[in-house]
Amino acid sequence: MCAQSTEFAQALRDAGLRVTHQRMTVMAILKDSVDHPSADELFERARKVDGAVSFATVYRTLSALEEAGLVRKLTFESDPARFEITPAAEHDHLVDVDTGEMIELASEDINRLRRALVDDLGYEIVAQTTLIRVRKKPAP
Amino acid sequence: MCAQSTEFAQALRDAGLRVTHQRMTVMAILKDSVDHPSADELFERARKVDGAVSFATVYRTLSALEEAGLVRKLTFESDPARFEITPAAEHDHLVDVDTGEMIELASEDINRLRRALVDDLGYEIVAQTTLIRVRKKPAP
DNA sequence: CTATACTTGCAAATGCTTCTCATTTACATG
DNA sequence: CATGTAAATGAGAAGCATTTGCAAGTATAG
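The joint structure predicted for all components is written out below.
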C-alpha cells in the first residue's frame, strides 16, 4: 500500500491539489472497491478507516478528482451517482435491474465504431457513459 | 393535428390511462420538440398552450408515459432529466458540452454488437442509454 | 518555523423531483 | 343526458442527493 500511496500523492500533486489524508483515504478506498460505490457508501467506508472524513469532503474530493480526470462519475437514471477510478480502457456498464449489481463490459470494437461515427459528424468525444439495464436470462 | 390527437388518445387508452387534455398537451409538445426538453422546459411550453398544466402534472404525466413505454427519460450527469417520445430505433445521444445541444446517433452496428456481448454474458437488455459528451472539432 | 492559500467540518441551502390532500374530471352506467 | 366513482390535477410541502458559506485547521513554500 506504500507504493500505491506515493502514486496517489503524485497524482494529486500533478493535478495541482494538496495531498490530504482525506483525499488519500478516498482514493485508496475507491481503488479497492470493485463495486462502483456511491458517495454515501464511499463515505461509510472512508469513515471506518479514517474517522475524520466528512460527507462534504467526500463529495468535494470526488469532484476535484473527477475534474482532474482521476475519477469517473456514473449517473444512472435518478439513482445516486456512483464512482470509479478512471479506467485505462473505456468500457460500458451493465446494471442488473434485480440485484443492482454492476458489471463492466469492454469492447474495443464498439469504441472504435463509436469514435468513427462521432468523428464523421465533426465532433470529438470528451467523455461518454453507457448504462445498460439488464436482467439475467432464464436458464435455457 | 387531428389524426395525431386520436393516435395519442388511443395510446393512452391502450396503456390504461385516462385521456386528459393535460396529457394530450404534454404528448403533443414532446412530439413536436426535436431538442429533448427537460421537465421544466416542457412545463413552460405546455403552459403557453394550455394554461391549466401544473408542474406536478408534467412530472406525473412523464413518468406515467415512461412506465407505459411511450416516453423515454434521458439522465445526463447531474443535469435535469430530458425526455423524448420513445424512438422506433434505438440510438445514442451526443451532447455538445459547449452549447448543450443534443444530437442523435443511430447505428444498427453498435446495437447489434452490444446485444451480442450482453447476450454472451447471460443477460438480456431491459433498457439502455448512451450519453456522449462531445465538442466540435476545429476546422482542419 | 511562519505565513498563507488551500481544505475541511458542520450545518444550512439548493435544485430537481415526488408526494399529500382537497378538488376536479373522465367516462362507464342508468 | 344525468350521475357515481375512481383516477387525475393543482398548489405547495416534503424528500433526497448534492453543493455551499463560513470559521477553524493544515499542507506546503520560503
